[in-house]
Amino acid sequence: MNPVSHHRRFVAALLAVLCAQSALAGMVTVDVTTRSAATATDAVIVFDPLDAAPAPSHETAVIDQVNKTFVPRVSVVRTGTAITFPNSDHIRHQVYSFSSAKPFTLKLYAGSPHTAVVFDQAGLVILGCNIHDNMVAYVGVVDSPYFAKLTDSGTVTLNLPAGRYRLRAWHPNAVAAVPSQEISVSEAPMNISLVIAVDSTSAAVAAWPE
Ligand SMILES: [Cu+2]
């Protein structure tokens, strides 16, 4: 084979790979509005794949304690994620959860505990502190690598492999459940608008969409 023909074959093969990749994924943009003065911050969206099961992974996450507040207040993690709970305050905290997806109590501590807590079951885990009653944090544990937490802008874009998904959404202060919907992702960009009725003064914690 002469060098030019070899080069052409290489380019053709490269183009084939690039085209195959672009056809296998799509950009999905989700806009969340709240129907109130509350921003979309802390809203969670999850795409549960209905076709191929994604390869398992072992991720890590951190929930800090700063000025008697969990930071971040809302986390969304994949099942199997190991979360550590450092304490950046100069006082002691005692993190616990009564949630059935992950009941646990850490020892009363200052500084960083050495052991992480593995969130191995899907569901909502509500964290509290035994010393400070008003400390609360939420961990949404999901069997999917495709999720996002919204910020003030209310918009997030994910690059999802082509296929069918169930889209569900949640906000800790939602006053009504958001119906889940099935979507089909292809290479065409997709825009989805979601409305979550949020009342930031609501004391009740919104039910997690299972
Ligand atoms: Cu505390």
Explained architecture:
With 210 residues, this protein is mainly beta. The chain has 2 domains: 23-51 and 146-210, Carboxypeptidase-like, regulatory domain (Immunoglobulin-like, Sandwich), CATH 2.60.40; 55-143, Immunoglobulin-like. The protein is built from 1 helix and 17 strands. Strands 6-12-11-8-9 form a 5-stranded mixed β-sheet, with no helix packed on it. It has a 4-stranded antiparallel β-sheet with strand order 13-2-15-16, with no helix packed on it. Strand 8 (95-97) and strand 9 (104-105) form a beta hairpin. Residues 14-22 have low confidence and may be disordered. The structure holds copper (II) ion. Copper (II) ion (CU) is lined by residues 68, 93, 129, 131-132, 135.
Short structural summary:
The chain is mostly beta strands. The chain is built from one helix and 17 strands. The strands form five sheets. Strands 6-12-11-8-9 form a five-stranded mixed beta sheet, with no helix packed on it.
